Amino acid sequence: MSRPVPRPTALSRPFWDAAAEGRLVLPHCAACGLTFFAPEPACPGCLSRDWVHVPSPGTGTVYSVTVVHRAPGPGFEVPFALAVVDLDEGVAMLSHVVGCPVDDVVIGLRVRVDFRPLTGDVTLPYFVPA
Ligand SMILES: [Zn+2]
């Protein structure tokens, strides 16, 4: 068995297509200006369906982190740093922080997005120290 692979939906397809091109995009509401994540049918701020994906610089700060030593399933290399990253737009993403020893990933660490292909079709957004 291999690692689980995200299955893009109609809502998330633009996010995954951008990731495959090495770009991070986030849902942004045209009605109230809220940037949010993950994509939802309606803006969580005002329930408007008038939102689009907009580019993000992909910079942020580690809000919380744990080091995973026991693989959650096949296809994961352990240990890895699993972090909640507060993006500068004010939304949080759960991802791995890579590119440094896991013990160097601490709360408050500045990070930037970095993309790694998972399969031929799906590229995942990871974070590395900025
Ligand atoms: Zn809104």
CATH domain fold name of the largest domain: OB fold (Dihydrolipoamide Acetyltransferase, E2P)
The quaternary organization reads as single chain
With strands numbered from the N-terminus, the spatial order across the biggest sheet is 5-4-3-6-7
Radius of gyration: 15 Å
Distance between the termini: 34 Å
How does this model look, in words?
There is one protein chain. This protein is mostly beta strands. The protein has 2 domains: 8-56, no CATH class; 57-130, OB fold (Dihydrolipoamide Acetyltransferase, E2P) (Beta Barrel), CATH 2.40.50. It has one helix spanning 13-20, and strands spanning 24-29, 51-56, 59-68, 80-87, 92-97, 110-117, 123-129. Strands 5-4-3-6-7 form a 5-stranded antiparallel sheet. A hairpin with a 4-residue loop joins strand 4 (80-87) and strand 5 (92-97). It is globular and about 45 Å long. Bound molecules: zinc ion. Zinc ion (ZN) binds at residues 29, 31-32, 34, 43, 45-46, 48.
Topology:
Layout: H1 13-20, E1 24-29, E2 51-56, E3 59-68, E4 80-87, E5 92-97, E6 110-117, E7 123-129
Antiparallel strand pairs: 1-2, 3-4, 3-6, 4-5, 6-7
Bound molecules: zinc ion (ZN).
Zinc ion binds next to loops.
